[in-house]
Amino acid sequence: MKKLKSVLFSRTMLLTVLVLLSILSLGIGVKEFSILGLFTGKGDDVSLAVISRIPRLVSILVTGASLSIAGLIMQTITSNKFVSPATAGTMEWCRFGVLVAMILAGGQSKMFKIICAFVISLVGTMFFMYVLNKIKFKNMILVPLVGMMLGNVIGSITGFFAYKYDIVQNMSSWLQGNFSLVIKGNYELLYIGIPFFFIAYFYANKFTIAGMGDGFATSLGLNHKAIVAIGMVIVAFITSVTVVTIGSIPFIGLIVPNIVAMYKGDNLKNTLFDTAIFGALFVLICDIIGRKILAPYEVSISVVVSILGSAIFLFLLTRKKNA
Predict the structure, then answer these.
(1) What is the rounded end-to-end Cα distance, in angstroms, of the chain?
(2) What is the mean pLDDT of residues 290-303?
(3) Is the full-model pTM beyond 0.85?
(4) What is the pLDDT of residue 211?
(5) How many other CB atoms sit within 10 Å of the CB of residue 36?
(6) Alpha-helical segments (H) within the chain
């Protein structure tokens, strides 16, 4: 009973902070905006909120939650706390998929880019898992290093073809995450990733068992390869939607699940909700910092997350070493 009360209290506190910072985020911007005017129906405030402020806030929350859950699934399946869409090369495969979509059918819709990015990132992520299975001696550091090595190779290939076909500037919009261009009509594709949250929750216990190894999972009657494939589909699709709609944002899927695990443990089903909320909160805080530090100019969310994320990542590395 005490444990349940503690969980409810911590989640209530997280949600309260998230709501307060969300209200603060709505009020930040170059154009004057009043929260009171929004609730009283003032024309300019309502219009600005509907067109720009609310879409940006929603995209921040969905992106933070999505990438955090994707990282949690990868870490659970691989049993490695340093694996995420960024360190496994999934984001680089997504950008390669976007490049392929632009070369084959340049002006096609975002959905076409998402499909290309999803298919190629899924193949790339499964290749990463295949390489891991071939490595006899694994440790916490070696696994993400393999992923980053593969990611750098794919990133170099992407850069080569981008130069060859003279689309470097077009590709640059997917190299760095940015919420400044989010307005009504160009962010709604993020919603199609939400059902995968529920799929992840449904398979949570199976992902946990799959992370214990092929032999253990098979002994419990679980199809290990099928469960891993489902997990990789969820990760690849969530990452693809985020990269195409917002851009690449590093470290979210790496550090958020680790921070939550420090206080909540490693059970995926018990930490899924907390990871999603904390991920949304972390991205929201980084976005507020980026919008205020050089106001009225804005620092890209990728830059802010990279600075804070690298510091937290170093802390996690030293903590694991001393543990």
Answers:
(1) 30
(2) 83
(3) yes
(4) 79
(5) 8
(6) 2-26, 35-40, 43-48, 54-78, 90-105, 110-134, 142-164, 168-172, 195-202, 204-210, 214-219, 224-245, 252-264, 268-292, 301-322
